[in-house]
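ARCHIVE CARD
CATEGORY: sequence design from structure
SOURCE FIELD: tokenized fold
FIELD CONTENT:
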């Protein structure tokens, strides 16, 4: 397998939103204000949020409908040709993963998971959510966590971590464990505090003097990593930003009723030597907070990485036959062929989308493949056919088709058509 021409760029954001709705412009937080060319755009945007407003009576609706934060982020990213692949939720936890459209058909074995750790694992106010997938031959796992709060509950945070590692399991063969993936990124409000020795005022004074190293020597997360109690296998780049919690709302001043701390973190792990053809590597080139965002008592934190993948091509998939005409209010046939080792399975479906769709969930209608008339194959041809009924489209416009392979809870995107025009037949 050929090595890629260039690494993939990933941008991460973690933010405890303190149950507030989005008020400030999020473009700067997403790194989209001062880019010069499309080459500077991240290939993948990952946004992990905590304490997104979620009422117990609305939990079912929250799982189904787009929350205001996800909607705001999607509205920004769609202008740069990003598509939301997944939104995973657990009460106040929300994890969004967006890809540049050109990468969608190279995504395989997409799976989500969650683990509750609140109240002994019975409640999702604390815990972790994740999205894992294979892209260009490497497996990437992203975990967004919110661990137990309060200075004195360090042992509970350690226990939360170990519970997540033990119970957070996937069904993808050979990738059942978080650490079985090639790249693991862990972000969130991890709630680790500064150890004993400084009160809130003393911490504030040291921060104002920029004597961060004095405080970082007592950082609980660094301590538990060094002692192999939690996060020992992860790497965290040097912290040069001020503690991200606890601020007065609408301010850049600390609320000194609590001791300031670096609660909001982004860590990573690379299994670099799992393949013979390439050595995997993640290069982090920034790690910073964003103090100008003042609507929460936490400051958001971002990081950017370049990662090595195995190939810029994906061998298996499907290829749609060009659609030369799609007639509104008529039955239309879609033809396609499988490439490489790809094949259909019960549960696979083809979605019909507007040309510029910004989420995999935005299909207008879909049809399952491999059933009845849909399973027809042309004689002496490799082409498969699926039929869309006369009610599939009602309006003229430009559209696309996407083939989604569904194996239980595991999803792969095998192909996407070129855009095509739909119109009424001239009479």
């Amino acid at each position: 397998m050929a090595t890629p021409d260039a690494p993939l760029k990933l941008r991460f954001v973690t933010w405890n939103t303190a149950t507030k709705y989005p008020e400030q412009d999020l473009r700067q937080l997403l790194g989209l204000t001062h880019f010069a060319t499309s080459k500077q755009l991240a290939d993948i945007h990952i946004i992990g949020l905590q304490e997104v407003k979620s009422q117990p009576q609305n939990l079912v609706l929250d799982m189904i409908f787009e929350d205001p934060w996800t909607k705001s982020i999607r509205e920004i990213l769609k202008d740069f040709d990003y598509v939301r692949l997944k939104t995973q939720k657990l009460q106040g936890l929300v994890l969004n993963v967006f890809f540049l459209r050109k990468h969608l058909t190279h995504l395989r074995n997409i799976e989500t998971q969650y683990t509750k750790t609140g109240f002994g694992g019975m409640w999702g106010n604390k815990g972790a959510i994740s999205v894992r997938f294979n892209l260009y031959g490497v497996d990437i796992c992203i975990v967004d966590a919110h661990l137990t709060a309060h200075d004195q509950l360090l042992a509970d945070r350690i226990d939360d971590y170990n519970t997540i590692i033990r119970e957070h399991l996937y069904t993808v063969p050979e990738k059942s464990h978080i650490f079985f993936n090639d790249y693991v990124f862990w972000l969130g409000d991890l709630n680790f505090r500064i150890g004993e020795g400084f009160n809130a005022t003393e911490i504030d004074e040291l921060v104002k003097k920029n004597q961060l190293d004095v405080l970082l020597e007592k950082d609980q997360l660094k301590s538990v990593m060094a002692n192999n109690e939690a996060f020992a296998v992860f790497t965290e780049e040097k912290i040069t930003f001020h503690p991200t919690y606890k601020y007065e709302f609408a301010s850049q001043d600390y609320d000194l009723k609590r001791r300031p701390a670096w609660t909001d973190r982004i860590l990573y792990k690379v299994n670099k030597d799992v393949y013979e053809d390439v050595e995997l590597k993640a290069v982090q080139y920034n790690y910073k907070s964003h103090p100008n965002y003042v609507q929460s008592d936490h400051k958001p934190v971002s990081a950017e990485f370049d990662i090595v993948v195995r190939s810029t091509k994906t061998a298996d998939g499907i290829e749609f036959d060009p659609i030369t005409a799609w007639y509104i209010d008529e039955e239309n046939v879609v033809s396609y062929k499988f490439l490489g080792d790809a094949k259909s399975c019960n549960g696979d479906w083809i979605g019909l989308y507007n040309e510029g769709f910004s989420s995999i969930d935005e299909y207008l209608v879909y049809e399952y493949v491999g059933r009845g008339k849909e399973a027809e194959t042309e004689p002496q041809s490799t082409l498969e056919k699926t039929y869309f009924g006369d009610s599939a489209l009602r309006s003229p416009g430009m559209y696309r088709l996407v083939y989604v392979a569904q194996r239980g809870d595991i999803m792969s995107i095998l192909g996407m058509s070129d855009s095509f025009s739909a119109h009424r037949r001239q009479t």
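CARD ANNOTATION: The radius of gyration is 23 Å. Residues 182 and 245 are 32 Å apart (CA to CA).
SHELF: design records, drawer C
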